[in-house]
Design a protein that fits this description.
membrane, 691 residues, eleven-stranded mixed beta sheet, alpha+beta, transmembrane, 23 helices, transmembrane helix, 62% helix, ABC3_permease_C
């Protein structure tokens, strides 16, 4: 069957025609017999003919496989507790914290592995589809030679399975070398208390290899099926005549309109009960759907507009770059997609993290009536007492310190056996002290003291009648303290969080983990807040205590979130590495697939410098198109943030990721220009030497 379906290919080989069945042969009539090429020889000839493109793709897939495999192995190592100390020798709180850190490391590494895997799979499919699109003339000649569409698809599967499979296998195996470094990077992203020595795990190698290989095969199958679905005559049309004429299909249009409707709804409609994090994620997803559906039209349209200055500045090279960027849908989209994914996803995630922290800080401290807030790194209120009581400008003040405990009560409502307990200490009781005190829903302040504790209502709303229940807290020495719940309080006016509230200062000092203290102070009538803050900051006997206004405190709390969210730069670095891999691949493949056209232009008298300059300009135009589309997408994300937060607080206190966007955009432009310029220069130089 194979010989019959490909018999015409043998005659093409024998006549010396240049086609996928073989190179030009001698046109002799005395040839004894035309041999029909088999599948193996066809696949081998394709691999040899396009070895430059495959080399670039193999290196890119190897790099993506290394990252995905390494993070998958780190996730498995964290889940199994590689190198972690024996928790049975720890006290209750340290054991609980170690297990919590292990779970956090597992979740974060799984998230990193999923991000690397998702981006790798998506871009592998895009790259394979781009290469198959460039093969359509060869596949059309095979169809005209008698090959069936099924045979063409089988050849394409075999052709791409070999390089993608080898690259995925080598890269996944090489990921073992990066497991210790990635584990150390994970620990340095905010899990410094975790002791873990990660080791390679074969299961992570298998997951990465299977996922990337399957993605490559599926991308190959669907791309080849799309090519073989059109007639051979249509597929034989030159790319310059077909590019830029493809209209948006009805499915793409419906998807884009659905994404637009969803994005507008997220921006302008305030959904009850929906957090800003969900709205930002939904908006980012809708915008990516719109850009992904319309990318074959949006990218060339933007390139056509952006290419005008390049045409005026570089004349011949700029004109050629603009024409290619406008017409080459596949190559322009292949360059633009990695940049769009990097800019939109990374800046969207950073904006999500910072905005959610800002919203939490704003919602917590906006109801606070204190004009002055004092932040201290210690839970000992003695120095605060001495200074606040002796300062006439302070009308009333209360210190709240937070400590994390371990509880021995299995029936603890909510399933949280590491509750956060707030300790309240009245430094100075003036007439306005009630405005910065908790609201007692049940009981009163007189019901608190040694052996007694209150439940915070917003943290324990599901418990109907907690009064009288016993609670056993385990201190840092593994000693239990049994307390009786005597009140239910609402701490919204204080801006504090937690599950319980106590007034026993001696017991609060035994908390296994203390998080410092915050003092709320009301200014006496006739006293300027700025003068009081200056007086207090000049009077502290110990370091680590600072007074500020409420607005400054909110700003500093949001800025502290950037230090806490140390995983953000690592997410950005990982996205930059993945983008670099596939951006270099897309630029190199685009240049390589145009080598034959460049040879014809050089033979017509076009200089090598003009072609290299044109290649650089084209990559820069494609990159700027991607940046423009990403900026429009990020405008939608920022619109959600401003719409939700601008009415609550001055937006100047919210650190939005403009710097990340600008740095990554400039880096993408430089990398695309360098990759295209270098590859175009060396390939044209090799062609000149060969001639």
């Amino acid at each position: 069957m194979e010989g019959n379906s490909l018999s015409l290919g043998g005659s093409i080989t024998g006549t010396g025609a240049s086609g996928p069945m073989g190179g030009g042969g001698s046109q002799t009539a005395a040839r004894p017999k035309a041999q029909t090429p088999g599948l193996a020889s066809l696949v081998r000839s394709f691999l040899h003919e396009h070895r430059s493109s495959y080399t670039v793709m193999v290196l890119a897939v190897m790099a993506a496989s290394v990252l995905t495999s390494a993070w998958a192995q780190v996730a498995i190592a964290a889940r199994k507790g590689d190198g972690m100390p024996d928790t049975r020798a720890m006290n209750s709180y340290d054991r609980a914290m170690t297990l919590s850190l292990r779970d956090s490391a597992t979740l974060i590494s799984i998230m990193y592995a999923c991000i690397c895997g998702f981006v790798s799979i998506f871009l592998v499919i895009t790259s394979v589809g781009f290469l198959i699109e460039r093969r359509r003339r060869e596949y059309a000649m095979m169809r005209l030679s008698g090959a069936s569409p099924r045979t063409v698809r089988l050849i394409s599967l075999l052709e791409f399975m070999i390089p993608v499979g080898l690259a995925a296998l080598i890269g996944s195996s090489a990921g073992c070398l990066l497991v210790p470094a990635f584990a150390k990077s994970l620990i340095n992203s905010g899990l410094e208390a975790l002791e873990m020595t990660a080791h390679p795990h074969p299961m992570g190698i298998i997951f990465a290899f299977a996922g990337i290989l399957l993605a490559g095969l599926l991308g190959t199958w669907f791309a080849a099926r799309r090519i073989t679905a059109i007639s051979p005559i249509e597929a034989l049309q030159d790319s310059e005549n077909r590019s830029g004429t493809k209209s948006i299909g009805p499915l793409r249009l419906i998807i884009a309109l659905a994404g637009l409707a969803g994005g507008l709804a997220m921006v302008y409609h305030r959904f009850n009960g929906m957090d800003i994090e969900i709205q930002i994620l939904a908006t980012t997803g809708c915008l990516l759907v719109i850009i992904g559906a319309l990318a074959p039209v949006l990218v060339p349209a933007c390139a056509n507009l952006i290419g005008i200055p390049f045409q005026l500045a570089f004349r011949g090279a700029g004109l050629l770059a603009r024409q290619r960027a406008r017409k080459e849908n596949r190559s322009s989209t292949a360059v633009a997609v990695p940049i769009i994914l990097m800019l939109v996803i990374v800046t969207g995630v950073i904006a999500l993290g910072r905005s959610s922290w800002a919203q939490e800080a704003i919602s917590r401290y906006k109801p606070v009536a204190a004009e002055t807030m004092v932040n201290a790194q210690t839970n000992d209120p003695r120095d605060l007492d001495r200074q606040l009581q002796s300062t006439a400008g302070v009308e009333s003040a209360i210190t709240y310190s937070e400590g994390s405990w371990k509880t021995a009560d299995k029936e603890d409502i909510g399933g949280n056996d590491e509750p956060s307990v707030m300790a309240m200490h009245v430094n100075k009781a003036g007439k306005d002290v009630n405005t910065i005190s908790p609201i007692f829903i049940k009981g009163s302040a007189a019901d608190l003291g040694p052996g007694k504790i209150a439940v915070i209502a917003n943290g324990r709303t599901q418990e109907k009648n907690p009064i009288g229940r016993k609670l056993t807290l385990i201190d840092r020495y593994d000693k239990g303290h049994t307390l009786t719940i005597t009140a239910v309080v609402d701490v919204t006016p204080t801006g504090q969080m937690g599950q319980y509230l106590m007034t026993d200062a001696d017991l609060s000092q035994l908390a296994p983990d203390n998080s410092g203290s915050t003092t709320l102070a009301r200014t006496a009538p006739g006293v300027r807040t700025d003068d009081l803050i200056s007086q207090l900051n000049a009077s502290w006997d110990s370091k680590g205590i600072k007074a500020c206004t409420k607005k400054e405190y909110i700003r500093s709390d949001i800025q502290r979130s950037q230090k806490v969210q140390r995983a953000m730069p690592q997410i950005a670095n990982g996205a930059i590495v993945l983008t670099a891999i596939f951006l270099i691949q897309a630029c190199a493949i685009a240049v390589n697939e145009r080598r034959q056209e460049n040879r014809r232009m050089q033979a017509a008298g076009v200089s090598r410098g003009t072609l290299v300059c044109s290649s650089i300009c084209e990559s820069v135009i494609d990159s700027l198109s991607a940046i423009l589309l990403s900026a429009l997408a990020m405008a939608g994300v920022l619109a959600v943030i401003f719409h939700q937060l601008s009415g609550q607080v001055d937006m100047s206190v919210v650190p939005l990721p403009y710097g990340y966007f600008l740095i990554m955009a400039l880096w993408a432009i430089g990398l695309a220009a360098a990759a295209s310029g270098l590859y175009s220069w060396f390939s044209s130089r090799a062609d000149t030497t060969r001639r």
